[in-house]
Amino acid sequence: MEGSATDPFTRELAAARVDNVLLGSTAAPDPVSVVDRLLCVQAQEHAFSRWSVAQRTQRPDEPAVLASIAAGAVVRTHILRPTWHYVRGDDLRWLQALTGPRVRRLSAGWYRSHGADEEFFLATRKVVEAQLAGGHCLTRDELKQSLIGAGIDVSGQRITAALFDLELQAVICSGPVRGKHHTYGLVDELLPPAPPLAADEALTLLVRRYLKGHGPALLKDLRWWSSLTLKQLQQGVEDLGATVTSATVGGAEYMWLAEQQPAGDASRQTGQFRLLQVFDELFVGYSESRGLVDPDGEFGSVLPIGFSKMMHVVLEGDRLAGRWRSDKRRGPAPGTNTLEITAEMTRPLGAADLRGLEQAAEAYGAFVGMEVATVTRDLNAL
């Protein structure tokens, strides 16, 4: 099957991707189901990453996300590229066994630049395991003080390297959130035992789960997302056989699961607005084909947007339609603060569209527990 970057079939692929990442007509029943569908959800920004999970559920609720973390059903850890991600507790061990060794190798230069060698890692592991044993969960700063007390130099990025490496080896992961701080606990105490998977079984499972929650996508997208090699991933695709379908569009081969065949115009949610954080999986889940939902190339790559004042993005149906930010505004009396959502849109909005955008802003306001005022600007008029 062939197609161009602008033909209707390309829009069908975009609509299918939006549906598969749970931003279309289908919502998950709870936060654990969201993370199960996406396999890993990038989560370095605490509040916004919880919104990314919650907005994919039938009733977006921050306490429900926090409860799933407290129960160990969802954990927050360094995995894949690597950066912070949410992942189901049931998936943590096999994913780290599959991808962790490669990420450790890719991180070797960074380790050396901070003097973090195997002797350092063995020493820090001994202290951290002793401090967390017995079901204790401690913050990064608390573990840092314990390591300093043991005479270990964890200045600068050395503390980051120490905890990062223990996460990659599935020794530690997040425990319950305490106030505004995540804690760390021992994987073998926080999570129930899980049988290991053979390497080939884990590989095919990763490919299938990625396509289920991110397809249609390119093999290079999956390479970026997983940190595994193209050779490995191609083998995983071949092992899945006819369960994977593909089509060449604009010279690139898109893959998806045969059970998720793009449904055409019927799957589109044109006119439905969603406020997405810039590190949402709809963007960071892909390195080569982000343009599928940005066909005009107006939004560019993720990181430059992430460092701009208007750092988040508005999704309209199956394509990006603007940028947004939130600012707290102090009210005239205590407890009357509001959240101002400023949205810069790529086209003028009529009354119905404007109300749809306001509803999206109100959904975010309800999630953070604040009244919302929406300010809309036309990017073409700025």
Summarize the structure.
By secondary structure, the protein is α+β, with helices and mostly antiparallel strands.
Supply the key terms.
single chain, 382 residues, alpha+beta, Arc Repressor Mutant, subunit A, 2 domains, 5-stranded mixed sheet, 3-stranded mixed sheet, 16 helices, 14 strands, 43% helix, 19% strand, disordered N terminus
Task: Describe the protein.
This protein is α+β, with helices and mostly antiparallel strands and 382 residues long. It has two domains: 23-190, Orthogonal Bundle (Arc Repressor Mutant, subunit A), CATH 1.10.10.10; 266-381, no CATH class. Helix content is 43%, strand content 19%. It has helices at residues 8-20, 31-38, 46-54, 62-70, 89-106, 108-113, 118-132, 140-149, 158-168, 187-190, 199-214, 219-226, 230-240, 281-284, 302-306, 351-368; strands spanning 2-3, 40-42, 74-79, 83-88, 138-139, 172-174, 183-186, 244-249, 252-257, 273-276, 312-316, 319-329, 338-345, 371-378. It has a five-stranded mixed beta sheet, with helices on one face. α11 (199-214) packs across α13. Residues 1-5 have low confidence and may be disordered.
